[in-house]
Every structure is written in C-alpha cells, then in structure tokens.
Amino acid sequence: GLVKFCMKQEIKDVCITAPPFHQVRAFISGVSALSDLNANSLNLYNGPGNLVDWNEEVIHSQGKTKGKRRELIKGELERILRYQKSGNPPLVSFDIVIEYLNQRG
Fold it and tell me: Is residue 25 classed as helix, strand or coil in its secondary structure?
C-alpha cells in the first residue's frame, strides 16, 4: 500500500522505520513491493528509530510473541527466509535487495 500511495502522489523518497527487531524485514518488504510494482522512480531508505533497550521485554507487532528485543531477532530472520521461500507474503532474495541498494546509489 505504501508503494502504491507514493507512486500515486509522485513521492520520490521514502524512509522505512520499524521496531529494531523488525527493521530488516520491513525494508525487504518495501524492496519487494518496489520490485513487484516496478516502481523504479521511488527511492526507499532504511532509517532506524530511537535507541532502545535490547533487553526490554516487548510484544511483537502481531501481539502473539513476547520477548526481549534481542530474542525476537531470530524469529524475524526465520520469517524472512520462510517468506523468501514460500512467497507468502512474497519477499525478494537478499541478492535482489543488495542489487537494489547498488542501483539506487
């Protein structure tokens, strides 16, 4: 939805910010949407939010998983790999993300 909105509004640059343990998957999701919609005119950037305590217990964005931020990273990486394989939701490979970053400059 974000990529479609930016294309419609002719926005050229967008910064993705998410909870630290979710940051990588959020960015890959954005690059996946760019690829899927052939949104070559949109530049996507990764912007970490405020500093947080990695030992603080939090609830994951879906409300199902609870743990320290540092503990939630493993689950996020597992989801990235699963979504890259299964395509539900479809995530591009790490190679495509790196290729995007190299062409974006």
Answer: helix
Prediction pTM value: 0.86
Distance CA 38, CA 32 (A): 10
pLDDT at 8: 92
Taking residues 71-99, what's their average pLDDT?
Answer: 90
Within a 10 A sphere around the Cβ of 30, how many other Cβ atoms? 23
- What is the 8-class DSSP label of residue 29? H
Separation of alpha carbons 30 and 15, rounded Å = 10
For helices 2-9 and 23-37, angle between their N-to-C axes, nearest 10 degrees: 50
Q: How far is CA 43 from its chain centroid?
A: 14
